[in-house]
Design goal:
Layout: H1 4-14, E1 41-47, H2 51-54, H3 58-68, E2 73-79, H4 83-92, E3 110-114, H5 121-130, E4 146-150, E5 166-168, H6 175-185, H7 191-198, E6 204-205, E7 210-214, E8 220-225, E9 234-235, E10 261-264, E11 266-267, H8 277-281, E12 286-287, H9 290-303, E13 308-312, H10 322-333, E14 339-341, H11 352-358, E15 366-371, H12 375-381, H13 387-399, E16 404-411, H14 418-439, E17 444-451, H15 468-481, E18 487-491, H16 494-504, H17 510-519, H18 533-543, H19 547-551, E19 566-567, H20 572-583, H21 600-603
Parallel strand pairs: 1-2, 1-3, 3-4, 4-5, 9-19, 10-13, 13-14, 15-16, 16-17, 17-18
Antiparallel strand pairs: 5-6, 7-8, 11-12
């Protein structure tokens, strides 16, 4: 294994042979470099895609900061090399290394991998291989770094169970430090002993401590612990009070996908969109105060050169004091050219005052996500936004100077018809008409159409994926009807949708498929030009599994899912009830106003004593006979 000095010398010789060598050198302003010899616990913090994407990931930065704030721990960053650099690393014998000190990943105690989405799975195998580590967790003893993973894809970790020692289920800011403490206490012990100690942490899942039994038809019979003291169910980790926002952002060496400094203003969502995995798994809602957010912006301005601040949450316009927040930041920094973005806004909670507060900070387009365009589909997905409200909001946006509106829709629910898809085209054209009344031919509507994937831990986890034939027919209809000046359409490739579906809904048997696909050359599956559907189909055939079993098979209400032994603290019975309501076209109102007893509150019962009163408050529980009725009054577009 190369020393850091040998890695540095080799990099000096080869880096001019690769595209964007700045990805591989480190040394960014605000990066943290500790004395390796004096720190006993070392974590390689990994985003399994290229630097340009990983440096924009807030989750990685939060964990990097949480570890480096500990005097006896250090965290250094590792990203996936692009194909040209990977080839050179293999040719020159360069192991996977950290950017801060150029230590090989094998020298670290922990290899911590962020998995926000499933298309990164084969990249993880590339990273393990480049690090000189066995791919299979059972073949790695305590002489290797402990390989852990966390992120939204890990709410169903079973497809990656063969490769990862342990998964963090839930939020990571606190547990990452606790993992470090356990490893310091168990240093030198066998790997199984370390994992037994880690399994006692709330939210830490060790796959090897659970056995999976299957019915003859391939469905799961049971998932049971195989060691004494291991819990039958692992419940997600919740950070009850959001920690101080991270502000010492590293200034990247090359341009990144998001050239802004993000501040998370709120975590969680109460809207209850039935397709939304993030909205279910991040409950409950926790808000930061305006003062805390503004103080964070102050520090970011002092510590970095970013000219744009992203105020992030699943639904930023649902933040209780969003108008006040935008106005305060605008008054303080507007003259200095600082731009504010709210990347996730809901039509239902938009207001004239908020648009007025944002208009002086506008850059590019304005994004809205109606998702559906008929009352039937809006009821099914529990996102009821009438046409007129969409058009009224579009008119107000265009009138304040924005020339481009981005609209996001979803197709592919089994109950959807071509008439529902045609309604999407009609609504888009109506929005463009509103823009042309203000800007003439300079008005634009950019349309993104994603394909519905039934996700774990959502009310739609019982639903099958739409057929490729239906999806292609719906996409063809939109391609034919959304043409012309001012209209720009983007959609998902059907094969990429299939990949997301079987990886997100798969069981432990998919580990063999993932490994075989990687052996066949799959890399960068999230990149359209690199995705190889043929390799994945060959991998399924070679492993004797049927892709359609995971993608197109409806689930019975009593089926045991691969993720049922992992709890998001939202009851499966509640999700089932919501699914059955969708079949009847019944909706639920925002549960900030009425509690539907999803199960998160008992799990979160102590937070009210720790959280500011204006940050989170439990509404009264709605009697069962009143649950599910749609609120007839739609929030109007008026000052907040």
């Amino acid at each position: 294994m190369m020393t850091p000095e040998q890695i540095e010398r080799t990099l000096d010789r080869i880096l001019l042979q690769v595209d964007r060598p700045g990805r591989y050198v480190g040394g960014e302003y605000n990066s943290v470099v500790k004395d390796w010899a004096r720190v006993p616990l070392r974590v390689a913090m990994t985003f399994p895609d290229i630097y340009d994407l990983g440096m924009s990931n807030l989750g990685v930065m939060l964990l990097y900061d949480a570890v480096n704030r500990q005097p006896d721990m250090l965290a250094e960053r590792v990203f996936n090399p692009w194909t040209d650099m990977e080839a050179l690393m293999r040719r020159e014998g360069i192991p996977l290394y950290s950017l801060e000190t150029k230590h090989a990943v094998r020298d670290f105690d922990v290899f911590a991998i962020s998995l926000p989405y499933e298309q990164l799975y084969t990249n993880v195998l590339t990273l393990l291989d480049l690090a000189g580590m066995p791919l299979l967790a059972r073949e790695r003893d305590s002489s290797y770094p402990l390989v852990i993973a966390g992120g939204h894809a890990c709410y169903n970790p079973e497809p990656m169970a063969d490769f990862i020692d342990g998964f963090v289920i839930g939020e990571g800011e606190e547990i990452i430090v606790e993992i470090g403490r356990v490893l310091l206490e168990t240093k030198g012990q066998p790997r199984d002993a370390q994992l037994m100690a880690l399994a006692r942490l709330e939210g830490f899942y060790v796959p090897r401590f659970y056995d999976v039994a299957y019915h003859p038809d391939g469905t799961i019979a049971a998932v049971t612990p195989n060691r004494p003291g291991i819990p039958a169910t692992v419940t997600k980790r919740i950070v009850p009070v959001l920690p101080k926002p991270f502000t010492r952002f590293l200034v990247p060496n090359v341009s990144t996908v998001h050239n802004r400094a993000p501040v998370e203003i709120m975590r969680g969502c109460t809207r209850g969109c039935r397709f939304c995995h993030a909205g279910m798994v991040t409950r409950p809602v926790r808000e930061r105060t305006v003062d805390e957010i503004v103080a964070a912006v102050d520090e970011i301005v002092r510590n970095t050169g970013f000219e744009e601040i992203g105020l992030l949450s699943l639904s930023s316009s649902d933040y209780t004091r969003v108008r006040e927040l935008v106005q305060v930041i605008g008054e303080k920094y507007g003259s200095r050219g600082l731009s504010i973005s709210l990347p996730s806004l809901r039509i239902e909670s938009m207001s004239v005052d908020l648009l007025d507060a944002l208009k002086d900070t506008r850059r590019g387009g304005f994004t809205l996500a109606p998702e559906a365009a008929t009352e039937k589909m809006r009821r099914i997905i529990n996102k009821f936004v009438p046409h007129q409200q969409v058009l009224d909001t579009a008119r107000e946006i265009y009138s304040r100077g924005w020339r481009t509106i981005k609209l996001y829709f979803m197709i592919g629910h089994p109950e959807e018809t071509l008439e529902d898809v045609q309604a999407i085209a009609d609504l888009v054209k109506a929005v463009l008409t509103e823009g042309r009344r203000v800007h003439g031919n300079k008005a634009n509507v950019n349309v993104g159409v994603s394909t519905f994937v039934p996700k774990p831990h959502t009310p739609f986890q019982w639903v099958s994926l739409d057929t490729p034939e239906n999806i292609r027919a719906k996409q063809a209809l939109l391609q034919q009807t959304l043409r012309g000046h001012g209209l720009h359409l983007r959609w998902n490739d059907v094969e990429e949708t299939l990949l997301e579906a079987f990886l997100s809904r798969g069981d432990r048997r998919l580990g063999a498929v993932i490994r075989r696909a990687w052996e066949l050359g799959t890399r960068f599956d999230a990149w359209q030009d690199y995705y190889r559907a043929d390799a994945w189909r060959q991998a399924f055939e070679d492993c004797g599994l049927d892709m359609r079993f995971y993608t197109h098979r409806p689930r019975s209400l009593d089926e045991v899912f691969p993720w049922d032994h992992l709890s998001i603290a939202v009851r499966k019975k509640y999700l089932q009830e919501d699914y059955l309501m969708s079949l009847q076209g019944e909706t639920r109102v925002d549960c900030r106003n009425q509690c539907f007893a999803c199960g998160i509150l008992p799990r979160f019962k102590d937070v009210r004593a720790e959280t500011p009163a204006d940050a989170w408050e439990c509404p009264p529980v709605v009697p069962r006979e009143r649950r599910g009725r749609r609120a007839e009054a739609i929030i109007p577009l008026e000052p907040m």
